[in-house]
Structure formats: structure tokens, C-alpha cells
Design goal:
five-stranded mixed sheet, seven-stranded mixed sheet, about 400 residues, oxidoreductase, glutamate dehydrogenase (NAD+) activity, Glu/Leu/Phe/Val/Trp_DH_dimer, about 15% strand, 15 helices, binds nicotinamide-adenine-dinucleotide, 12 strands
């Protein structure tokens, strides 16, 4: 479904950046080829003793600027092409934010909702041991993504450490704090989405106080973005999950309390909307924070938001993007808007390397500094080159990777 499109989109975006930067065909060849792909079979003994086989992947798209870095997704729809696309996006994201990392992505095609906690643990540990030869704090550092969280990172860290014979906290980020995680990592992507939203409102001359937001996806990114935006004075008017959207809740905290207690969004006083109705609400800001291809040729025409801040990776198809541009909607692209997660993952990796841990003020200040710098570079590039923000962000990220290729040279 979304898979081929995320891959096609990512390649088309790269092609455009290569052309806009005036890079050569040799550059295109090196930039458009993933460096290492591992596909593994992951056997799982279910609690009823039945053995099932799952497909797992780890793609290291680039290691030119440092060890590769990227999340681990557990979702039934993932396949190799989508994993390559997401690893490619991670590469430009790390370069755009000037982190000393390449890009990676991995995952298992599995519906975690069907697994018990013990099954999830066994699957995570076996996946870790299958990809163990190519990961490590100096090689490739996984993190949580859709369908995984800090529990999975704890199991990955433990599996790697048991095999190494000593504790290696820096092999993954997004770990629990007691295992060497960083303060602020859980909320980092959402915090970064909120910073991006505040800056985009400034560019459009809209005051944050009372500005309205609709958020598609109420997971790690959507929830924390909603919390941070409410703190900034914005009004979150609708959110959705895979089952549909709701509006009419009093506050995100009240909705979250209901959600954690009842596993649904139907808090007292809420009204149901379809996911498409959420996308088409008359709001200042729309935040897609679920999966790829939420905004397509089919859904883009009806969008009335003035600003779109892409919390999810690749939520907009090229056709959808063209429609948004024609409508004059400011789109803050994924590789900028959701970079807060990898930025604080970088802080976690640095802290693990130094065995010296920062307070939350230091994390937040450094996160804000890096995001603001990337934001103003994208804003300036978009203005000076008369390109969209997405094109500007890709041009910045791709040009830094191309420059690193040139300076390192081609071996042998
Ligand atoms: P998550 O699994 O915590 O949450 C995903 C949310 O999306 C859930 O609320 C789910 O119900 C909802 N959802 C799934 N399908 C949907 C649909 N068709 N319509 C509406 N909602 C739907 O995942 P997450 O970590 O929040 O990641 C969300 C997106 O953000 C992904 O694209 C991910 O790659 C990207 N991202 C995540 C991070 C991170 O740090 N977690 C960092 C950067 C980018």
C-alpha cells in the first residue's frame, strides 16, 4: 500500500535535490544507493508453543558522516523498499541537523498488537541477535519507531550487552533512563514538532496563543506534540488514532487519562470524526503524525490548514505536495519537523559515551538551539533559492552528504 510510494517519493525528492544543487551523475549514483542491506528471518515461539517466522530488516543507507542511525519499526506493512526509503530520509535528516551520523532504519513485518509482552520480548531479542554483527555504538545505533518503545530498546541493549560480555548502553537510544537513557528523549520528537509549529506560525504572522491544531496520530509523536503545543498556548481541537478521530475534549491531559484507562479516544463530551474529516478541519495547523501517505492527491484538495508540520515520516505524496504548494500552504517537511527525536538520541549517545548525564534543562536548551539553527537555514535557503521548504531541507541535507563523499574520496 504505502510502501512503494514512500520509496518512490524519497527517490524523487533526492533526484530533485541533486538537480537543484547541480550535482553530477556520479554524485547521484553514490547518493541514491543504500550501502548495506540485511534481511533476516526472525523465528518466534508463541506462548502456545507454535513457531512462526517473521521477516526482519536493517538498512544502513549511509555511513559517510558517521555511524548510521535510525529507528526500528514493528508494523505488518513494512517491507524492504519502505525501510530503504526511511533510511534514506534519516540520512538527510542527520545531515540537515549537522549530527555526526549516517542514516539507517530497520524493523519487522509484524502486528505487535497480536503479541503478548513475552512474545514481543523474544521477537525483539531474536531480531537483535540476527542483526548483531552490523550494529554497535560505532557502527549503527537503533532507536524506537512505530510499534516499538523503550521496553524494546532495553531488550535490545541487554541482548547486545550479554553477547559483548559487558554493558553497552550506547548501542541503542530511546532507552529507559536507568539504563543510560536521556532525560527528554521520550518527548523529544513531539517537542521538536512543537518548536517547528511555533516557528512556522511566526513566519506566517499567526500568534501561538489560541491558534488551532489538528493532529493525526496519537502515539509517541502526536501525543507529546499535543502536550507541548498546549503548553505554548495553542488549542488542540482534534486528534486521531488508527480507529478514527475525536473532537470536543477539554484538554489533552484529560483525553490521555481516558485513553490510558480505556484504550479508546471516546472521553466524555467528545464527538467522533473520520480521519479524513480531521485532515479537512478549518485549523491553523495540521500535524500528520501517523504513517506515510496521509496527504495524497485524494486528501490534499480538501485541506484548509494554513500550515502543515510533518510529525510523521513521508506523510505527503508528491502529488499531495504539489496541491499543498498550489494552495499556498506552508509545509514544514518531515526531515526538519520531526528531527527532535534523533537530535536527543544524539545527546543520549554522547552521554552514554561519556558516562556523564545532563539535566533536562541542558537537553531542552541544546535541542532548541539545534532545531532553531536548522529551521533558519531552511527558511533562508527557501527564500534565497525560491524553492519550497521541503526542497530547501533536502538541498541542505543532500549537499552535506555529497560534500562528505567528495572530501573522503573514493576508495581505492
Ligand atoms: P506510534 O506507534 O507511537 O504511534 C502511531 C500513531 O498513529 C498511533 O496513535 C496509531 O493509532 C496512529 N495511526 C496508525 N495508523 C493510522 C491511520 N491510518 N490513521 C490515523 N492514525 C493512525 O508511532 P510514533 O513513534 O508516534 O511515530 C509516528 C510517525 O512519526 C512515524 O511516521 C514515525 O516514523 C515518525 N517519527 C517518529 C519518531 C519517534 O521518535 N518516535 C521520530 C521521528 C519520526
Amino acid at each position: 500500500m504505502t510502501t512503494e510510494s514512500a520509496f518512490t517519493t524519497a527517490r524523487a525528492q533526492l533526484r530533485k535535490a541533486v538537480d537543484q544543487l547541480g550535482l553530477s551523475e556520479n554524485d547521484w549514483q553514490t547518493l541514491s544507493t543504500p550501502r548495506r542491506i540485511l534481511e533476516v528471518a526472525v523465528p518466534l515461539r508463541r506462548d502456545n508453543d507454535k513457531v512462526e517466522m517473521y521477516k526482519g530488516y536493517r538498512v544502513q543507507y549511509s555511513t559517510t558522516r558517521g555511524p548510521s542511525k535510525g529507528g526500528v519499526r514493528f508494523h505488518p506493512d513494512i517491507d524492504l523498499e519502505e525501510t530503504v526509503a526511511l533510511a534514506m530520509l534519516m540520512t538527510w535528516k542527520c545531515a540537515l541537523t549537522n549530527l555526526p551520523f549516517g542514516g539507517a532504519k530497520g524493523g519487522i513485518a509484524v502486528d505487535v498488537a497480536q503479541l503478548s509482552e513475552r512474545e514481543n520480548e523474544r521477537l525483539t531479542r531474536r531480531y537483535t541477535s540476527e542483526i548483531l554483527p552490523i550494529i554497535g555504538p560505532e557502527r549503527d545505533i537503533p532507536a524506537p519507531d512505530v510499534g516499538t518503545d523503550e521496553r524494546n530498546m532495553a531488550w535490545m541493549m541487554d541482548t547486545y550487552s550479554v553477547n559483548a560480555g559487558f554493558s553497552v548502553p550506547g548501542v541503542v537510544t530511546g532507552k529507559p533512563i536507568v539504563l543510560g537513557g536521556s532525560l527528554g528523549r521520550t518527548s523529544a520528537t513531539g517537542d521538536g514538532v512543537a518548536i517547528s509549529t511555533r516557528e512556522a506560525l511566526r513566519v506566517r504572522g499567526i500568534k501561538p496563543q489560541g491558534a488551532t491544531v489538528a493532529i493525526q496520530g496519537f502515539g509517541k509523536v502526536g501525543y507529546w506534540a499535543a502536550v507541548a503545543l498546549e503548553e505554548m498556548g495553542l488549542k488542540v481541537v482534534a486528534v486521531s488514532d488508527v480507529k478514527g478521530a475525536v473532537t470536543g475534549f477539554k484538554s489533552i491531559k484529560e483525553l490521555w487519562d481516558h485513553f490510558t484507562a480505556h484504550h479508546n479516544l471516546d472521553a466524555p463530551g467528545t464527538d467522533r470524526l473520520t480521519n479524513e474529516e480531521l485532515l479537512h478541519l478549518e485549523v491553523d495547523v495540521l500535524i500528520p503524525a501517523a504513517l506515510a501517505d496521509a496527504i495524497t492527491e485524494k486528501t490534499a484538495h480538501g485541506i484548509k490548514a494554513k500550515i502543515i508540520v510533518e510529525g510523521a515520516n513521508a506523510p505527503t505524496s508528491p502529488e499531495g505536495d504539489a496541491i499543498l504548494n498550489d494552495k499556498g500552504i506552508l509545509v514544514v517537511p518531515d526531515i526538519l519537523a520531526n528531527s527532535g527525536g534523533v537530535i536527543v538520541s544524539y545527546f543520549e549517545w554522547v552521554q552514554d559515551k561519556q558516562n556523564y548525564f545532563w539535566d533536562s534543562h541542558e537537553v531542552k536548551t541544546n535541542l532548541t538551539d539545534i532545531m532553531m539553527k536548522a529551521f533558519s537555514e531552511v527558511e533562508d535557503m527557501a527564500k534565497s533559492q525560491s524553492v519550497t521548504w521541503r526542497e530547501a531541507a533536502h538541498m541542505l541535507g543532500v549537499s552535506r552528504v555529497a560534500q562528505a563523499h567528495k572530501l573522503r574520496g573514493l576508495y581505492p
